[in-house]
Amino acid sequence: MALRAVRRLATAALVVAALSVVCFGLLDAAPGDPAASVLEARSGGRPPSPAAIAELRGEMGLDDPPPVRYWRWASHALRGDLGTSYMSGRPVTETLGDTVPWTLLLTASAVLLSFAAALAVGLVAALTRRAWLRRGIDLLLFVMGGMPGFVVALLLLYAFAAATHLMPSGGVSRPGEPVTAYGLLAHLMLPACALAFGHHFGVYVRLVENGVGRLRDAPHVQNARVRGLPRRTVVVRHLMRPGLVPFTARLGVGVGTLVAGVYATEVIFSWPGMGREAISAARAQDHPLLIAIVLVTGLIVIAANLAAELIVAALDPRARTGRADAA
Amino acid sequence: MPPDAPASAPARVRGLLAVRLWPRRPALAAAVAVLVALVLLAVLAPLLTSLDPVATDTSATSLKPGSPGHPLGTDLLGRDLWTRMLYGARTSLLVGLTAAAITVGLGVLIGGLAAIAPRWLDGLIARTADVLLALPLLVIVLALAAVAGPSLGLVVAAIALTSWMPVALIVRAELRGRRERLYVRAAYALGLSRWQVMWRHLLPGALPPVASIAAFEVGHAVLTESTLSFLGLGVPPNRPSWGNLLTEAQSHLLTGEWYTVAIPAAAVVVTIVAVNAVAGAVAGPSGEGGTW
Amino acid sequence: MPGMVKRPVMAVMAVVLAAAVASACGQGDEPASGKGDGSLTYAIGDEPETFNPGLQDEHTDPVTELVFRGLTRHDRDNKVVPALARSWDIAPDGRTYTFALRPGVTWQDGKPFTADDVKFTIETVRDAGADSPLSRNFTMVRSVEAPDPATVRLRLDEPFAPMLDAVSMGMLPKHLLQGKKLTDPGFGRRPVGTGPFTLTAYKHGQYAELTAFDGYYEGKPGLKKVVVKYVPDDSARLIQLRNGEVDAANLAPQQAGKAGGHRLEVYPTADYRALMFNMKDPVFADRRVRQAMNHAVDRDAITRSVVLGYGTPAKGPLDTGPYAAAPGFAFAPAKAASLMKEAGYAKNAHGSWAKSGRTVKFELTTFAEDSLRVAILNVSATQLKQQGFDVDPRPRPRDWVRKHWGDLQGMVVGWGTPYDPDSSVYGPFASSQALDKGGSNYGSYSNPAADEALEAGRSTLDPAKRKAAYTAFQQALQDDPPFVWISYLKTINAVPKDLTGPAQRTLGHHGYGFFWNAETWRYN
Amino acid sequence: MTSSGLTITGLTVDVPGRRVVHGLDLAVPAGRVLALAGPSGGGKTLTARAIAGLHPHGGTVLVNGRPSVRGRDVGYAFQDALASLNPTVTVRRHLTETVKAHGTGDPGAALARFGLDPALAAAHPFELSGGQAQRVALALATVHGPPVLIADEVTTALDPVTQAAVLDLVRAEARDRAILLITHDLAAAARWADDIAVMRDGRIVEQGPADRILADPQSDLARGLVAAATAAPVAAEAPPGDGEAVSVQGLRRVLRSRRRTTVALDGADLAVRPGEAVAIVGRSGSGKSTLVGALAALDRPDAGTVLRGGRDVWALRDRDRRAVRRRTGLVFQDPLASFDPRHTVRQAIAEAGPYDDDLLRYVGLDPAMAARRPATLSGGECQRVAIARALAQKPDVLLADEPTSGLDVLTEDRVLRLLTGLRRDHGITIALVTHDLRVARRVADRVVVLHAGRIVEDVPARALDDARHPETRRLLDATALTGKWA
């Protein structure tokens, strides 16, 4: 077990390293000159002179060959220095410190909301004998499955903020006022829902529904019933525990999907997270910031995958021994 | 095999493609009809409207749906929404279908390779796909799009590059799963060659799930196109696509022109729902409902 | 079996519901605005990368405008009036400026404001080169002298008429920036100036909170707090305004009627939109073609439709200022046709003007992110097509455009300034500022008559001579139009009904300048 | 009617659309074992499930004179023991939760009663062998001391030695409770039950003491079952030819999975003459199926040679080896799984050789079935299609891997008769793998016993009773009809 954990962590580290190389390479291969972008942005869009570009390139160290630059970046990164943003000139770590917690908060809330709701709806769908209820859920999931995240976001925005003034439409608090738990919950509600109930929601419901539904008449569940166990035990231990393994195994990927959806959501709800930062960084060719954000996202997803693996291992001993069929 | 196999036969039969379609047939028929209609509308767009999708008309701005000559109304600049929706369908469906085709082709190729590759290569491919699946490649695509400028080809490539993984993993799992099946062993025992077994037993068996995921991928591609366009990094801005229409109209949500948002949004949702319905029917009951 | 599931499911549902209800209630009873505490929350779309006035152009964003003051400033007619400089004296040859500084001015951190700060500011910006867009205003400054803490003297190599405008740039605190680069990000985010409001909190991507500066040299402002909230999305701004999340907001034209119980402050701006042509492209070589296109565009229709009347048809680049003299072009298809025929064109089978088989074919582009420019692009392209010009409307991403200035054929551009005309006409129209010379004359427009007038306008301080020069300049552009002029924009801001103080003035780019007299604003 | 034990009157069971069990009356007094025997699809399992309370039913089910309470009164051991255990929970958890639910019982003692090490309680179900799983399932069904135990085909998947051991333990449980043994194997019923009820189409056809039914069956069904269980060996009609149709020498094969390696074959030698029928007998895990794979030239051995017609098949070119495979018919234990689910019967057969209606007729099937898919056929029909497919190959060797283990006795009889007929009509060499010596006797001229990857016994079928090797003796004992539990 310990060995496995070490191996998983080593793999994760390797993945992060590989990811950084890929990002670096891709951005490097992209046409366009960050130095020119920076100068243009500083001069209000005026094309900069070649001399100024050359000077800035030298300053930014862009003229070294890519491996040298990568090594420089990586060795700094290992010491916790992710460089400075081309655009704002701030240390990337500072920007991350400002934005990542918000993204984590939003993503975590959406993950909880999405998975809790998927669990609830999936269980109802799997266990109910009422055809209308199941059909209703089917229909709901079908329609939801066709909704791009930003359409959901706009709908929520319209329904709860614009039309009814029930909830705040954006940001994390009223500007200038301290962030309170209460106010934060209010501001979190819409973006978290928008993120949680996108087109992928149905997949999780289906995972629960199929995982549990498949086991509803499984021999071991019948055995549990025929032994006269309390309903609670039958459902929780014998139906849900093994039935939720496929769902749990996908949590990691699910978190990844949600994180990918965070960009549009943050833009629509003015959420001060790294997604918005990423889009502006991408547009401005702010490579240090962009790479850092991609890596942080990768870390989140890898952490989520590890967590999911741990949960699966806790739920299903087969996973602990590395049997592939557990997933 | 249970001793009372005949009794359980009906349940098994449902797993088979043809029979499985029965229970949902009305919904499926409706979905197929919707898709066929959409494709027809897109293909026949020039016959169905005489207007130019980008031509403005300052004398006919902000007309409500149902106005004479403008069945779906016009936007703030007097562009005919019906025309724009038709041409938008062309772009969106073109992107959706091409991207899905490339995605599926790539996925089948890589997944197939993984399935027959030696263990280390297979492991490498599977791990890579797992990792890529989890990572926000979209960001990198955004960066590339920002620099290279939007183009249809880039959108298609971006979608394909970021969505082949589930296809590959499913194909790989299907092929590997099937390779272990007894009937494959039986086929080898009949003296069939690898190629024959692959062609007659492995691939056809993997077809329904692949067909299903291919359908899902079409929906996914339409969806990604609209999201990319929404972020301003998708289809070239002035080219009508549903995503672009949504993006442009987005700011009218609260002003009088709500229908300029509602109509393309509805088109996207209806298309994906129909595609998913078809995909779900093709996948059969064991299909988990595809991608993300 | 159905009963079996209820408990866990109900528990989850209960939690979700409780959270929803809690948050809904939490919002419902919040006050609709911060009027009670004398604060104003204002939503705007653009957020600058820095609040350092030395790194911005003359159109400063609200925060920079509120935090900083220059030696001079502009009044409601955009005339230069004293600010940190109490008075000034210009030598007759126009090469020496002596400013007498207002006594007793302090920085927002309590340090006294002195002539050293002015010297530091001007020298730093002058020497910043490409880092600062405003350095061009000071390249002719040979030396800055501070004979005593209350006096500053500028010595110029040559006369520079807009100098009094140029020194309206916010002054920088030497004690905070000395030894650092002008681009220092710390200062850019935590600026300290001499203006009426102090930046007390800034969350990038969220808001900037400004608190009244007690030590402001004109006395304490009427508002206790101004919060500038950055909401890039048009709809979101409107929603937040109607939702009571902000008290005031910058609105798009079509939202003007939806602002609920707010008062609209609609101000003209000096910001115009026009179609620029790349003169290196032979299609545009004949001035009659460009004149014809100017006659082919129906500016009234564009103003009516694209900005819903919140705009003024444009005649030339200086319509909103005291030098306005452009005759302008009327929408006259017949006139356009005759000009084209005169230029040797004839309608071909597709109804397009063509000469020796070549139509007036060009791509018209603009920043795809800018929906207003895209709308102008599409409407004017349609109008031009209707008059026989073979236009291909094709918006492109900002970054793409930035890398392809020289390859563009036609582009929807925006220029204009409410202040000294030189800054917004010299760059775009002087042949010395052509793109390949590193200037902002992106169309490489070259017109000796215009060049002559521009040079005359910037090198004399005599108002009458300047008026004559710019009149000649506008006539030169009329004869040989570099642009198809479209429209000046108006800016719409919704403010609380009981807020007094906002006063109409011709604003700059992006409608910046709305807060020009914010120190006098207060609630009734 | 006694008030102790299980008393069933007028039991009816419906599945959607039809009635499957029509008014069943049964009584199992405490201390006795009643075997409910009969062919597949007769309603045995549904009856058992209804009694246990897993399926709604009509009529009354009384335990010790009172209506039965689900869980408390009837212990139920499932056919597939492994599947009936929650894979995510330890054995101990299973036992203790039952004890907790009923407030009585001792997990350790329950395991011990079924001959299991109490340390096994810490194991998860998937770590158990088939026999262990079945014992755990039985311990679980009886840990809280229910007055009634239903054992539903508990030994179908087990080899005869394990089967005998498990049924002995079940029998031992009858000391203080009533036991209902569901089985399709009349031989097993006769050996381990006191009474037998023969059931078909939801009705009891015949009921009585086991000895009586075995000795003097009254109904056609009972007669058929008895005949099948006691069928005499079929003498070889054509004497085997000379030479070797197929042979293996020093065969060694190691199976590697991610977690462990198993030596499945460890120097096995076997030669089969043309026209001969050899039965390869052994317990689970003895390497039988691996040997079939080697004989079929499908799996390359780690050491040793596989000869067909004197040629080493693994020295052949790929194409020639495929030709060898084409001349080798292969019939699997799970016939359904051996067909591509998308293919019809006709397509499946056509893949082996030209399709001919006569093939289906020969195996006793209606040619109309050619258009159906295997999934719609019964187990016996499926196995006959498999034989038809093998026949279509025009093989000179037919390998059959436990072809009857999933079938009820009557179906098994039909398939075995078909196999012997095949040899008679076509002179095909047969190698039959089975764990059931009775099957071996019926088909084979010669029986080889495989144990731990080696051939430990090689005797003519008629001399089987005199075999001396302990493994052979164990197999013989396990399948003995008589020799009641003691």
UniProtKB/TrEMBL annotation, chain A:
Domain of life: Bacteria
Residues covered by the ABC transmembrane type-1 domain: 100-312
Ranges that cross the membrane: 102-127, 139-161, 181-205, 247-269, 289-315
Membrane topology (UniProt): Multi-pass membrane protein
Signal sequence region: 1-29
The entry's keywords: Cell membrane, Membrane, Signal, Transmembrane, Transmembrane helix, Transport
GO biological process terms, semicolon-separated: transmembrane transport
Stored Pfam families: BPD_transp_1, BPD_transp_1_N
Cellular localization per UniProt: Cell membrane
GO cellular component: plasma membrane
Family: Belongs to the binding-protein-dependent transport system permease family.
Identification of the protein by name: ABC transporter permease
The species this protein was found in: Actinomadura montaniterrae
Lineage, uppermost ranks: Bacteria, Bacillati, Actinomycetota, Actinomycetes, Streptosporangiales
UniProtKB/TrEMBL annotation, chain B:
Transmembrane segments: 27-48, 93-117, 129-148, 154-175, 258-283
BP terms from Gene Ontology: transmembrane transport
UniProt keyword S-adenosyl-L-methionine present: no
Pfam families, sorted: BPD_transp_1 (PF00528)
ABC transmembrane type-1 domain span: 89-279
GO terms for cellular component: plasma membrane
Highest taxon of source: Bacteria
Sorted UniProt keywords: Cell membrane, Membrane, Transmembrane, Transmembrane helix, Transport
Cell location: Cell membrane
Membrane topology summary: Multi-pass membrane protein
Family as reported in the entry's similarity comment: Belongs to the binding-protein-dependent transport system permease family.
Protein name: ABC transporter permease
Organism: Actinomadura montaniterrae
